[in-house]
Amino acid sequence: MLHNKSFVKKTKSGKITKNVREHYLRDDIYCGFQACKSCDSSTARISSSHSTVLILDTNVVLHQIDLIENPAIDGVVVLSIVLQEVRNKNLAVYNRIRALCSSSARKFFVFSNEHHKDTFVHDMTGESKNDRNDRAIRVAAQWYQNHLKGVANVLLITNDRDNKRKAVEMGISTEIIETYIKSLGQQDLLDLLVRPPSEDVAMEDVEDLRPSKRKVIYAEHKPMSEITAGLHRVIYHQGKLRVNRYNPFEAYVGSESIGDEIIIYGRTNMNRAFDGDIVAVELLPQDQWQEENSLSLADEEDEEEEVHLVPGSADDAPRAVNPGQGSNGNTDLPSSRPSGRVIGIIKRNWHSYCGSLEPMPMPAGEGGVAHALFVSKDRRIPKIRIQTRQLGNLLSKRIIVAVDSWDRMSRYPSGHYVRTIGEIGDRDTESEVVLIENDVDARPFSSQVLACLPPLPWSVSSEDLSNSIRQDLRHIRAFSVDPPGCKDIDDALHCIALSNGHFEVGVHIADVTNFVHPGTPLDDEASQRGTSVYLVERRIDMLPKPLTEDICSLKADVERLAFSVLWEMTPEAEIISTRFTKSIIKSCAALSYIEAQARMDDSRLVDPLTTDLRNMNALAKKMRLRRIERGALTLASAEVKFQIDTETHDPLDIGMYQIREANQMVEEFMLAANVSVAEKILKHFPVCSLLRRHPIPTKEMLEPLLRTAAAVGVNLDVSTSKALADSLDHAVGDDPYFNKLIRILATRCMTQAVYFSSGDLSSPEYLHYGLAAPLYTHFTSPIRRYADVIVHRLLAASLGIYKLPTVFQERPQLTSIADNLNYRHRNAQMAGRSSVELHTLIYFRKRPTDTEARIVKIRSNGFIVFVPKYGIEGPVYLTERSEKGGEWYVDEQQQQIKKMDGSSTYGVLQKVQIHMEVVEPQPNRPKLQLTLI
């Protein structure tokens, strides 16, 4: 049956055109219920054991997805109209409900109500799209009720009062979600319920547990129409809110409209915004910008008293500090940093949070509803109020809680319990918290994904050897240099002296795309994961282990498939020619950085492999020098290395990661390969190449570095990357660690390097600032980065080996892939840091230590120090947390904190002795406390 839908549309030229769309209606769409007599049972997903079939409306799916994912909810019909609405409103929830519909373990059936002749509904004049969709849900529910009469009960679940009333009038069995859950007799499921604050919810069966006497705590959010108008007139300013990791009552919003950061002081001015929310901000009057002059340190255990809050910057990078008190204790200069308040939320960043409940006495009676406060592991997140019927079971557990709403009359947001992770303090539990908090997918690979792998044992076949696209390079002396114990070996190198005095140098990269084909479950999984994640004690792979550790890994003494970049180079490391080829190699050695360095340093060794290493190292040094002369930055990071017990997985030792010449040698050739590949793919595919850029840092970002350097007598020129690199080279003092500290501070002022599609930006924006490279991409790690998989496909297509996959023809999809890669890359970094913090706590729990530290930031009530020996950073208080500073004041010009009587002064980059000890100021929230000796 054919149904025509017509609508009129106005073209850009102003003409009115009539469009007609054909909509096919069928009578052979089955209901999906196994016991149905009139439908084909081979298509059924809902078994005859289900006496009740549930139909969920859109809002129930959108708001109650945590509950729906519980195995107690089964035998569900998901209407296509509901799926479409959910997809339009919340893609994350859509992906979760789709996963349920495709899971073999769950009985969820998608019914195409929009294409069934008996359930399709025509548009009605004057009816809104939302009302039309609600009507379509009721019509489908009524059809199911008649269709399965005498076979099964059909129950429409809706929390919408109007929808429920109309359903009852049509004779449809319907319940609100809470009533249905109570009928199951599983009280714990009620903890998963979201109770929306909307007045449109049918609440006749819901207990109103809100306190009766309440006062307004927060200002009302402005409506979007007013926010949009205000942004257009630059009365309001839009940006992402970032909360200070050292003080959860301070935040900042980076605003393009004023070209500066707007500081938000206190929870009242944050006005119910969460870290990561896109917010609209109104500037405070300028005289209020000068109320406070410096930053303070605060902890989540501090009770918020707005009068005690001291304004400050945020984020994990050092930020500019307001000019403050001079030596006379008075304010010498007006504040240069604007302050504001949040007047509306443009886009929420709410998600599920890991943490524990605040300890509290058990309520009288068993199984009753207890009101509890959830405390997130992330100190930037406010406490969340939840209701639970299983308080006794949850007090000693790490749990996940989702935020539902934040009423302006409530000091805390409201949320609901999602699930239990494990016992507080258990290392496996705390490691899982790290993964959940950073949205890292650590689930085992599905059978569909594993089915894409070639059978083991795998070896290079005669077909591979005879393939004309692949060059046989097994005769060359290739070798790999990696961290100790590395099993997922991405890259190998070779260096041959040629008869003309030049060198042939090769970078050979695992040919992952020979096994990971576009559009397969394996490819889709790798695309979603984006990157492997390296924790202290384990690795979360992007690809299954048979690929990462065997089939693709360029292990010693086995033949492997590779994608090779081959250069002819002069002894001065000038590239004469470049070529790319698929290849077969046989690595002669898998060396660790320590082993490679030892070979190069041992003058007694003159074997061919050691000679190759020395030749490569000599070339790499010249390449590095030339790169630095172009303006590449040599920065530093506080990378920590743990020695882990192989049985208990507990840390045995901790220290800073040591970089050797061997590390730098490998890095130099990987950088060169990435640049060569970037040039090749962009030449062939100027609008769809995946590249990597590093935006130039803004003046505001570099301001704290300049201020700190000036305070210790170092003048940094930041006009270009070359000028900054030269300045950093000259920033030396008597202290051998001084230069590294300056470089660590410089690293933190940089922008984040990101992936992008070449068609989205103009060529000047392609620049990689840190590498001083006009073009750059990632090609050298396809085992652990999906970006490199994409680049391998681009390179193969540019060489005519394969056709370019269709995804490269769709710019929005490419942009979406790049966005996901940036998100996953950032999350992997954060997970790695969180894992280091967790193992640092475990290590120091039984090892209180006195050590030397360096002051890196001055605050009004103390300072933040960096501990070189352990790569640890944290706050040191000079006053009680509840005090503003008292007898101490900050000299902004000198970057010092001084005692009023002049008896003590602490300055930035100064050495101090500190005591490090794990304490637990709040139950279940251990932290590493640093105190001044």
Automatic annotation (TrEMBL):
Residues 52-165 form the PIN domain. Gene3D superfamilies: 2.40.50.690, 2.40.50.700, 5'-nuclease, Nucleic acid-binding proteins. Residues 291-339 are annotated as: Disordered. One of its GO terms (biological process) is nuclear mRNA surveillance of mRNA 3'-end processing. One of its GO terms (molecular function) is endonuclease activity. Its cofactor is Mg(2+). Signal peptide: none annotated. SUPFAM superfamilies: Nucleic acid-binding proteins (SSF50249), PIN domain-like (SSF88723). Residues 470-801 form the RNB domain. GO terms for cellular component: cytoplasmic exosome (RNase complex); nuclear exosome (RNase complex). It comes from the Eukaryota. Keywords: Exonuclease, Exosome, Hydrolase, Magnesium, Nuclease, Nucleus, RNA-binding, rRNA processing. InterPro entries: Dis3_CSD2, NA-bd_OB-fold, PIN-like_dom_sf, PIN_dom, RNase_II/R, RNase_II/R_CS, RNR_Ribonuclease, Rrp44_CSD1. PROSITE patterns: RIBONUCLEASE_II (PS01175). It is found in: Nucleus. Belongs to the RNR ribonuclease family. This is Exosome complex exonuclease RRP44 homolog A.
